[in-house]
Amino acid sequence: MRENRERGSLDIIYSHSPMPSVTHIEDIQNIPALTFVIGKTRAKQLTATLQKVPHLMVAGQTGGGKSTFLRGLITTLYLNNKDFIFTLIDLKGGLEFQTFESLPRIKVIPSVNQAVSQLQHLEDTLKERMDLLKANDCKDVDAYLAIPADKRKSTAGMSSAKSLGRHLLVIDEAAEMFLAGSHAGAKEIQTARRALSQIARQGRSVGVHLVIATQRPDAKALDPQVKANLTGVICFQMLNDASSITVLGVGRATELPAIPGRAIWKSGSEMIEVQTPYLGTEEVDPLLEKYRTLSNPSKGGTNEPKRDPL
Fold first, then answer.
1. Are the C-beta atoms of 62 and 215 separated by less than 8 Å?
2. Which helix (H) or strand (E) covers residue 45, if one does?
3. What is the DSSP letter of 164?
4. For residues 200 and 186, what is the distance between their CA atoms, to the nearest angstrom?
5. Average model confidence (pLDDT) for the chain?
6. Strand 45-49 relative to strand 35-40: parallel, antiparallel, unpaired?
7. What's the burial of 145, exposed, middle or buried (CB within 10 Å: 0-12/13-18/19+)?
8. Are 152 and 143 in contact (CB under 8 A)?
9. What is the pLDDT, as a whole number, of residue 181?
10. Helices (H), 165-272
11. Is the predicted pLDDT of residue 111 greater than 60, yes or no?
12. 138-182, pLDDT tens digit by residue?
């Protein structure tokens, strides 16, 4: 605040610099492990880690920037975490995640029926990992990895040599996972709800992380138990206060300017306006090409050994 004597007024300065309307991920191949970029504020680039924000909701209307944000999140974590496994469920036919097809460590799933089967498999993985942590008196995967390999105990389901690499599960347009209809019956939807709820509740300790993206964040389209465990929220512009309140608890997302990539970041009670980074497919493809070549012998590479996707 400062006095403007010429005008006889008191000026309240919100910021000395405007919010950028376009921003990019700086040095994307050298971002620390487990870290992803949220966006830029008026003062700095904002990042978060999966240790502090293990699960994430990405919400907003079409064209707001959800898909671009997810592309940047996945690419960043893929390039900088060589032991990560990715399951990308795209319930819009696989179009949004086709950039990541045929890459080692990534599985793209385009339908609800296939997704339900994968979620059941993840439920089993959660149980196996929980049993292994309990057998080694560990509260989480980091404590387990801190134990010397020759001191780790095995369980019936998993050997002590298991690396327990982290697993990122991303669901684009999650409403399709929670609403029965032509795409899936009530039984399949119930199975999906149960599995996602378990992942949201128990995934953090065992290194399984959940990212849910949706255009329709109402109570019917987003399971309340799952939502309660999504510790970070990135919310792009919303059409009405009801949708914004469902995601953020306030109507602030309806007040955002109509700038692609502009969003509200919420973690705990703090809410910050950010410009999320732009990362187009034309930028992603060259970054991923060497990994795609390794997995495709027709391009001169050799197939990596097949790995359990979980």
1. yes
2. strand 45-49
3. -
4. 21
5. 87
6. antiparallel
7. middle
8. no
9. 57
10. 175-178, 186-206, 224-228, 241-248
11. yes
12. 999 999 989 998 899 988 877 765 668 899 999 998 877 776 555
DSSP result, 217-248: -STTTS-HHHHHT--EEEEE--SSHHHHHHHH
The CA–CA distances, whole Å, from 131 to 83, 198, 199 equal 21, 15, 15
Q: Which residues of 116-126 are buried (b: 16+ CB within 10 A; e: fewer)?
A: bebbeebbebb
Copy the structure tokens of residue 136.
Answer: 């080694």
288 contacts: CB under 8 Å, gap ≥ 6: 75, 78, 99, 100, 103
Long-range contacts of 28-33 (CB under 8 A, 24+ apart): 28/75, 28/76, 28/79, 28/279, 28/287, 29/79, 29/80, 29/287, 30/80, 31/76, 31/79, 31/80, 32/80, 33/80, 33/81
Asked whether the CA dihedral 118, 292, 206, 163 is positive or negative, the reply is positive
| DSSP per-residue string spanning 96-130 | TTGGGTT-TTEEEE-SHHHHHHHHHHHHHHHHHHH
Q: What is the pTM of this model?
A: 0.88
Residue 162's pLDDT is 61
User: Position 84: which residue type?
Assistant: F
Pairing outcome for strands 85-90 and 167-172: parallel
Q: Which of 52, 78, 229, 215 is nearest to 142 (CA)?
A: 52
